[in-house]
Records
---
Amino acid sequence: MKLCDLTLPTPEENLACDEALLDFCEAGDSDELLRLWALPQYFVVLGYANESATEVNISACRELNIPVLRRCTGGGTVLQGPGVLNYSLIVRTDDSGPFHSIAAANKFILERHRDTLAKLIKAPVEWRGQTDLAIGGLKCAGNAQRRRRRFLLFHGSFLLHLDLGLLEKILPLPSHQPDYRLNRSHSDFLVNLNLPDHTLKAALSSAWNATTPLDQIPFDLITLRVREKYALDEWNLKF
């Protein structure tokens, strides 16, 4: 598996990069890959079908100059920025492989990440809800996927040392909650791993045997996706 340790300058470019890499692989220009990135700027990311008016405190985001964007995958709304490590897996969806269905991909990837994280922190890690990882009932990672014909994008975020107080100010309780949340506030539901990002990066790279650097990045396609989608209010605030 190829390794792409790449953080681009803006939130829009980083979201566009995941979709561009998926299209790049689907077109036959690359094999499976693991991307790792962490942007030192706060921004909110809506899941594909989330309604911005109910899932985000838009006025608080504007006051704090925090952009509100939308990704191409499902799941809930998250705060990105300092203290968050993101990963993106792009893998084949062969009928005989471990990623042949949504459920199979969830199981294979989340169990591998659960076991990798448990070894790292020397404590039990749970797979909770549909695609959460948790420690003692507290969520530390969320994930989502998008499927093409031959490849899928499975990506997520690990909380390392995110400012949960800021998160409380800009994100109300989500309209859809996993059963184990029990209507808890963000501060009572989320937990930081308190790990250096380089430690988790190394563990994820090892877990996926991602050692060969990706030597071709589709920058033109990333720029196109930003211009046609991720920089537009018509996309980001469409619901």
---
Amino acid sequence: MAKTASPGDHPLDTMLAVSDLISHPRYRQIYARVLTLDTPTVEEVADGLDSSTTTVYEDVNHLVENGLLACVTETQ
């Protein structure tokens, strides 16, 4: 699934990505679960949240696009 990664190269990219993470409770929960579980699948992250697997997939993709998580594999 995903692991933590560095946000974009520009400091403003980093600031915007972190701001996005801070302002969305579900993003914070997902990020914290990934840190706790190391490199979990999306299903493993969703198991600990009150969100559907589909919603978690969408949120993980958003966090990957913003550089806060990185995909380890494309299949999970």
---
Amino acid sequence: ESKGYEHWAKINNLKEAAKTLNYLTENNLLQYADLEKKVEDIHSSYARTGEDLKRIEARLRQVQPLIKNISNYQRLKPVYDAYMKAKDKPAFRAKHEAELVIFEAAKSTLLAMQGDQKLPSLKALQAEQQRLTEEQQGLYDERARLKKEMKQIDTIKANVDMLLRIDEDQEQRQERSSQRE
């Protein structure tokens, strides 16, 4: 049974070594320093996409409530204006209570978010949200690709490190045996 495993392990190790050598030659990583640089580049690209995603998601968290509240404010402003002109305010309010509550909530939220600043255009915010969402999806895709590439390059580097250690061990054994002679 252990002979079978030994045979499988040797074949598996040879396959891994072949994959590693193919990757190294296909990517022109013929110096160890080049391999280390590639590992570092992929890891830093992965980290950068994470930072970019955080920035975009933070902006989306600002834009989305603005869109919702500006939309409610604009949609219900005519109801509020009619209320302000109404002769019988309590009766008007009773009839339009839900709309007025939503309008007033939107108005106070926008005031808290924007202060006295002019409200941004709803169309511009929606365009920004669309752009940010597309950018976010692109970054998710890029990040998934980089994660896969990172796993691959880390395995390649571990294989190279293991092969180099095996070579060093063999050299040290040869040195010791030649010293004994």
